[in-house]
Design goal:
The protein is mostly beta strands and 160 residues long. It has 2 domains: 85 residues, Chitinase A, domain 3; 48 residues, Beta Barrel (Thrombin, subunit H). 8% of the residues lie in helices and 39% in strands. It is elongated.
Length: 160
């Protein structure tokens, strides 16, 4: 079976940055299961998987526009530490849920200077080219329930 709209796909993958440093891999947690054609993975990888079958192995580099988007400077701001009430020690790398005009977003602390905290609402991989090594492990038609829910179920997928 070829990967196409409404297929459940299981892949093994390794994701690296431009320098070849590993960012993520399925090695520790088993294959990634997703519902093809439903924006469950970055668009560039989904596009690269279209039409492939079990056993296919390939490498693909995905530019930011087809990955996590470009880095948007307007999503970075500096706030007084008093806005982080209830947090004893703020540190670079900490993540918080923030209420924005677009709903709840995850922001990351990127700098601390005196009483000021700089946060960034960009995805940590925004603006980066993604380098994937992929092996297709399984392709099957999605069940009616998976289509209704918009994601894969079962082993390595979503469990209800």
């Amino acid at each position: 079976m070829q990967i196409s709209q409404d297929s459940i796909v299981l892949i093994d993958y390794r994701l690296t940055d431009d320098a070849g440093n590993e960012i993520d891999s399925s090695a520790d947690h088993g294959p990634l299961a997703y519902l093809h054609g439903h924006s469950n993975i970055v668009p560039g990888l989904e596009q690269a998987l279209e039409g492939r079958g079990v056993g296919d192995e390939f490498k693909v580099s995905i530019e930011p526009a087809m990955g996590y988007g470009e880095n948007n400077p307007s999503l970075t701001q500096t706030l007084p530490s008093s806005m982080f009430g209830g947090v004893d020690q703020i540190a670079v790398g900490m993540q918080f849920h923030a209420q924005t005009d677009h709903g709840v977003e995850v922001v990351t602390v990127t700098a601390l200077e005196g009483d000021e905290v700089t946060i960034d609402g960009n995805h940590p991989l925004a603006g980066k080219t993604l380098h994937f090594e992929v092996t297709v492990r399984e392709v099957r038609p999605a069940t009616a329930e998976e289509l209704d829910h918009g994601h894969a179920h079962g082993e390595h997928g979503h469990h209800h």
